[in-house]
C-alpha cells in the first residue's frame, strides 16, 4: 500500500510539473523555413500551384503509399482543393485548400488534418533569382489544447525534415521534366514524318463526348484527371513508371456531333485493376505517319486531314488516330500533341 501511495503521489507530482510547464509553451507555433532550388520560378511554381503535382513530390503525402486522393475543380490555383485518407488507417485523413494564389509569387494553403478543427496556416513565397528560386515557407501550426501543447515542441523539427525531403523529391522530379523539355526543343512541329512505333499497353477509359464548342476538350481534361489519379494514387505508380497519355479515336470523327474515344496511359505490364470503369488496350507495333502539333486544340484538325490525305495519296489503309499529349491537357488554347496515324497495305 505504501508503494501505491508513493506511486500515486509521484504521478500527481509529475502531472503538476507538466501542467505548470505548459504555461510556458505557446498554444500554436509560428516558424519560417527557407530553401533554394536550382530551377527558375516558372518551372517551380506550377508544382506548388497544382495539387496533383504537389501531392506527388511532397513527402507528407508521397511517403505514405496507402493514401488515396480526390481532387476538386479548379485543379490549380485559388479555389482548388483535395481530400486524402489512408486506406488502412481510418484515423489518417484530411483536406488541403489553396486560398490565395499570385502566380510565381505567393500561395496560401490551409491544411486540415484528421479531426482537427483548426488548420495549419501555410504561406509560401517564391523569389526568382535568375535560374534559381528561393522558397520561403511561413507556417503556423493549429492551436493545441492546454495539455497537448508539448506537441508544438516537436512540430518544427518534424516539418523541417519533411520539407527537406520534399525539396529533394522536387529537384529530382524537375530534373526528369527538364530532360523531357530539352528533347522536345528538337521536335519539328507541323511537318509530316514517318515513324516506327513499338507496341504499347494502355490503361484507361472508354468515353463518349459531345463535339461542340469546348465540350470535347473539357471532357478530355476530366478523363485525363480520372486516369492519372487512378494510376498515380490507386496503383501507386511513380512518374517514371508510366508514359504520356494517348487518346485513340477514329481519324475522321472530328466531323461528328458526338465523339467516342479511349483515353489511356502507357504502363509497362498488365496488373490487377479493381475498378471496372478502367480497362487495358494494346497498341500493336506499326508504321505511322506523324505530325507534331502545337496550338489551339481545334486547330489540330488541319494536321489530321493532312495525315489522312497523305495515306490516301500513298494508297495505304489507315488505323485509328492516336493523339499523344506531350503536355497535360489543361489549356485548350495551348496544347502540345503528337498526332500519329498507323498505315499499312
The CATH superfamily label of the largest domain reads START domain
**Unreliable stretches, pLDDT < 50, 5 or more residues?**
13-25, 146-151
CATH fold description of the largest domain: Alpha-D-Glucose-1,6-Bisphosphate, Chain A, domain 4
Envelope shape: elongated
Number of domains: 2
Distance between the termini: 97 Å
Q: What integer is the average pLDDT?
A: 84
CATH architecture label of the largest domain: 2-Layer Sandwich
Radius of gyration from the CA trace? 26 Å
Q: What's the total count of β strands? A: 16
Largest sheet: 9 strands, antiparallel
Secondary-structure-based class equals alpha+beta
- CATH first level of the largest domain: Alpha Beta
Query: Helix content range of the residues, please?
Result: 25-40%
The H-and-E topology, N to C, reads as: HEHHHEEEEEEHEEHEEEEHEEE
Strand content: 25-35%
Number of helices, counting only DSSP H or I runs of 4 residues or more: 7
Keywords: Membrane, Transmembrane, Transmembrane helix
Protein name: Polyketide cyclase
Organism: Kaistella jeonii
InterPro entries: START-like_dom_sf
Amino acid at each position: 500500500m505504501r508503494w501505491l501511495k508513493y506511486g500515486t503521489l509521484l504521478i500527481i507530482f509529475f502531472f503538476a510539473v507538466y501542467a505548470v510547464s505548459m504555461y510556458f509553451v505557446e498554444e500554436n507555433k509560428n516558424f519560417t523555413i527557407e530553401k533554394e532550388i536550382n530551377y527558375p520560378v516558372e518551372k517551380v511554381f506550377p508544382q506548388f500551384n497544382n495539387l496533383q503535382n504537389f501531392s506527388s513530390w511532397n513527402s507528407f503525402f508521397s511517403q505514405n503509399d496507402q493514401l488515396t486522393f480526390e481532387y476538386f475543380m479548379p485543379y490549380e490555383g485559388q479555389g482548388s482543393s483535395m481530400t486524402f485518407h489512408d486506406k488502412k488507417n481510418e484515423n489518417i485523413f484530411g483536406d488541403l485548400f489553396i486560398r490565395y494564389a499570385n502566380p510565381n509569387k505567393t500561395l496560401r494553403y490551409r491544411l486540415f488534418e484528421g479531426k482537427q478543427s483548426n488548420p495549419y496556416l501555410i504561406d509560401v513565397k517564391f523569389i526568382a533569382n535568375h535560374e534559381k528560386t528561393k522558397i520561403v515557407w511561413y507556417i503556423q501550426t493549429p492551436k493545441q489544447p492546454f495539455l497537448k501543447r508539448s506537441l508544438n515542441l516537436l512540430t518544427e523539427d518534424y516539418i523541417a525534415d519533411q520539407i527537406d525531403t520534399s525539396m529533394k523529391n522536387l529537384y529530382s522530379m524537375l530534373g526528369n521534366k527538364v530532360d523531357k523539355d530539352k528533347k522536345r526543343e528538337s521536335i519539328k512541329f507541323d511537318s509530316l514524318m514517318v515513324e516506327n512505333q513499338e507496341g504499347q499497353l494502355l490503361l484507361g477509359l472508354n468515353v463518349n463526348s459531345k463535339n461542340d464548342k469546348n465540350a470535347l476538350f473539357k471532357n478530355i481534361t476530366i478523363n485525363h484527371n480520372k486516369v492519372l489519379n487512378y494510376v498515380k494514387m490507386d496503383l501507386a505508380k511513380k512518374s517514371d513508371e508510366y508514359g504520356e497519355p494517348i487518346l485513340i479515336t477514329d481519324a475522321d470523327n472530328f466531323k461528328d456531333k458526338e465523339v467516342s474515344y479511349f483515353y489511356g496511359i502507357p504502363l509497362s505490364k498488365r496488373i490487377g485493376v479493381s475498378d471496372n470503369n478502367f480497362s487495358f488496350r494494346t497498341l500493336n507495333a506499326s508504321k505511322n505517319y506523324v505530325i507534331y502539333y502545337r496550338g489551339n486544340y481545334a486547330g489540330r484538325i488541319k494536321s489530321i486531314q493532312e495525315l489522312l490525305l497523305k495515306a490516301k495519296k500513298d494508297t495505304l489503309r489507315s488505323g485509328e488516330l492516336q493523339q499523344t499529349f506531350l503536355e497535360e491537357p489543361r489549356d485548350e488554347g495551348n496544347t502540345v500533341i503528337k498526332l500519329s496515324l498507323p498505315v499499312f497495305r
